[in-house]
Specification:
This protein is mainly α and 175 residues long. The chain contains 8 helices and no strands. Helix 3 packs antiparallel against helix 5 and helix 4 runs antiparallel to helix 8. InterPro entries: PAP2/HPO_sf.
């Protein structure tokens, strides 16, 4: 959800006063929901025991589906004329998905923490630098992932570094 909220905030800010930003942002939010739908479908068909995908072997398929869906949505937005600034922000969905997918081949990182840190970084870059004050929310997400037993501290920190580093490395050059 942080990624969807960040996408809406950034798209609204970059296109104000035109309401078109919300359309672009909602399109990106739908893309984010596709990964969840793949997981729910897999649980319903008995592929996985629950929606948490706590076993390493369960993660690649939903991550790959979400990454491909994000890339298709990004390409469609580009084809239909989304503003350059929005495309720079929206490229984080397929790039982040691909990065977590690659990391999953070698270990496990917290996708939730990565999305939260990338989202806060994106909003701080494109909306207002004062939004960096939202970084304690990243710590809260990391803590929740530790508390539920889904990740180790190293996996949560790796996710936070991945999200922030990828956003800083990808978005500014595209602007």
């Amino acid at each position: 959800m942080p990624a969807a909220a960040a996408g809406l905030a950034v798209s609204w800010h970059l296109t104000w006063p035109s309401p078109a930003g919300l359309v672009w942002g909602l399109t990106a939010a739908v893309c984010a929901a596709l990964g969840v739908l793949v997981v729910a479908y897999g649980v319903w068909h008995g592929w996985w025991a629950d929606i948490h995908l706590s076993r390493h072997s369960q993660r690649p398929l939903p991550l790959a589906c979400a990454t491909v869906a994000a890339a298709v949505v990004w390409l469609a937005c580009r084809e239909f004329g989304a503003p350059r600034e929005l495309l720079a922000a929206a490229v984080m969905a397929p790039a982040g998905g691909a990065a977590v997918l690659v990391c999953t081949c070698f270990g496990k990182v917290s996708l939730h923490t990565s999305a939260a840190s990338g989202s806060v970084t994106l909003v701080a870059l494109l909306v207002d630098p004062w939004c960096a004050a939202l970084f304690p929310l990243v710590a809260a997400v990391a803590w929740a992932r530790l508390r539920t037993g889904a990740h180790t501290p190293g996996q949560a920190v790796a996710g936070a570094l991945l999200g922030t580093g990828l956003t800083l490395g990808v978005v500014p050059p595209l602007l």
